[in-house]
Amino acid sequence: MARDDDPEPADLAREREREWQEIIENFGDRAVLEPGDEPVVDAPRRAAPDDLDQDDLGATAAARDQVPPDEEFVPPTPPPVPRPPFDRLLAWTGVFGVPALVLFFIVVGVTLPAWTGLLFAAAFIGGFGYLVIQMPDEPRDPWDDGAVL
């Protein structure tokens, strides 16, 4: 078995040197293909809607509808979105609702009293802190990717 630090045979070294020299000499040149090198591809001709007969329309519809309607896949109705507990809903409202409300007031041009700004800041920080405290301490199972079948 050959090792990485074994010296290359002289023929292999000369061949690699020749290939590198060829690459350097042809760098930036555009490849020229011979006429016989290009594969011949017959592109299917799509007919314009005016060119189609009624028979052609029926044939394409029949080809499209080969699966019987009773065998078509119908996905099940997804379950309803779960509602978070009230305490977490209140915390998420503080984290996302307060900045949205402040941005709305800035765009509209409403000036709020200073105590309202302090209340908004406390709601944001309190909601964020509560969500951080409620995070689980132990790491997730590394093999659990969260997919449910």
Secondary structure layout:
Layout: H1 10-25, H2 54-64, H3 86-108, H4 114-133
Organism: Nocardioides bizhenqiangii
Keywords: Membrane, Transmembrane, Transmembrane helix
Protein name: DUF3040 domain-containing protein
Q: Describe it for me?
A:
This protein is mostly helical and 149 residues long. Helices cover 47% and strands 0% of the residues. The chain has four helices and no strands. Helix 3 (86-108) packs antiparallel against helix 4 (114-133). The protein is extended, with a radius of gyration of 35 Å. The mean pLDDT is 80. Keywords: Membrane, Transmembrane, Transmembrane helix. It comes from Nocardioides bizhenqiangii. This is DUF3040 domain-containing protein. The chain crosses the membrane at residues 89-108, 114-133.
List descriptors.
149 residues; mainly alpha; 4 helices
Briefly note the structural class of the backbone. mainly alpha
User: Distance between the terminal alpha carbons, to the nearest Å?
Assistant: 47 Å
Query: What Rg, in angstroms, do the CA atoms define?
Result: 35 Å
Residue fraction in strands: under 5%
Assembly level: single chain
Mean pLDDT: 80
Order of helices and strands: HHHH
Low-confidence stretches: none
Helix content: 40-55%
Shape: extended
Number of strands: 0
Number of helices: 4
- What's the main sheet like? none
